[in-house]
Task: inverse folding
């Protein structure tokens, strides 16, 4: 019987049957589709929130890493500065300790020589002999007569050259070789000794300006006196302390050129080298300091010159 039923009728019947079966499922499918879309939307929102959060976290991490790099750089700079400060402090301590040892030896030597120097009726060393303590070896005393320029053997040796009374101006000194040797008197009045002592006392108290003014006045009045080379040297030291290095060099040159036999020549040459170093003239400074090191080996000036050269080697200058 079925074989005789038309195909179209069978198809319609099947369609109706399927429709009747699927009709109750349609709301469920639609609801399921809406649920999937809702989930998709929620997942999209979550992904956007997570993306924004992760982006913010990454930006913060990048910022923290940059700050960490900057802090590390600052720490390295501070560590380097700390190393340099420790090195400078060590150098300063070593130089000071060495100089104190040298000064103590010189003081003992001066005291020994003083006991051997013949004295006059006034109790002062006879002209032609050194015996008074220099102010660098234990304090200046106006009552001690520094009557001569000390030679290499400690015995007084008068400088030769220009006539007594010639005043060498530091401003006219200029470069090395501009100064002429000065003949130095072998005696000093009490007033002269007191004037020198007053100028030096100002320097010892840290009054550099006042000391310079008094040393200038002293040298104008006593240009060829037995304290003249000391006055030139300490005037240069006062200017060096004020960082007036070019002017200090001029005064130290007066010591080395106008008073070539004086006991202040090694220290004056040393301070010329130091002043050139402070001015950044490293080549000239090295030449001067090497000369001091070689010519005054074992003395305070030679030791300090050697240590400054070692410092320059470490600095690469």
Result:
């Amino acid at each position: 019987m079925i074989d005789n039923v038309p195909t179209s009728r069978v198809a319609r019947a099947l369609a109706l049957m399927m429709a009747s079966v699927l009709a109750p499922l349609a709301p469920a499918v639609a609801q399921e589709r809406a649920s999937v879309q809702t989930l998709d939307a929620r997942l999209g929102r979550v992904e956007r929130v997570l993306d924004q959060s992760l982006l913010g976290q990454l930006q913060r991490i990048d910022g923290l890493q940059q700050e960490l790099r900057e802090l590390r750089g600052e720490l390295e700079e501070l560590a380097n500065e700390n190393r340099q400060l420790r090195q400078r402090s060590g150098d300063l301590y070593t130089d000071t300790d060495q100089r104190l040892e040298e000064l103590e030896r010189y003081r003992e030597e001066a005291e020994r020589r003083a006991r051997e120097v013949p004295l006059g009726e006034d109790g002062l060393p006879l002209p032609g002999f050194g015996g008074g303590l220099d102010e660098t070896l234990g304090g200046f005393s106006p009552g001690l007569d520094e009557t001569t320029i000390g030679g290499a053997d400690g015995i007084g040796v008068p400088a030769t050259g220009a006539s007594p009374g010639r005043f060498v101006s530091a401003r006219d000194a200029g470069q090395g070789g501009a100064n002429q040797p000065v003949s130095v008197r072998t005696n000093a009045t009490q007033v002269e000794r007191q004037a020198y002592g007053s100028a030096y006392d100002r320097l010892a108290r840290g009054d550099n300006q006042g000391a310079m003014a008094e040393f200038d006045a002293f040298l104008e009045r006593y240009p060829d006196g037995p304290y003249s080379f000391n006055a030139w040297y300490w005037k240069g030291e006062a200017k060096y302390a004020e960082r007036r290095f070019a002017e200090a060099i001029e005064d130290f040159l007066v010591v080395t050129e106008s008073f070539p036999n004086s006991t202040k020549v090694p220290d004056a040459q040393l301070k010329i080298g130091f002043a050139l170093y402070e001015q950044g003239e490293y080549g000239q400074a090295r030449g001067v300091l090497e000369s001091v090191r070689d010519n005054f080996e074992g003395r305070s000036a030679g030791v300090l010159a050697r240590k400054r050269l070692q410092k320059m080697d470490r600095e690469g200058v």
About this structure: Confidence is low (pLDDT under 50) at residues 115-175. The first helix runs from residue 7 to 22.
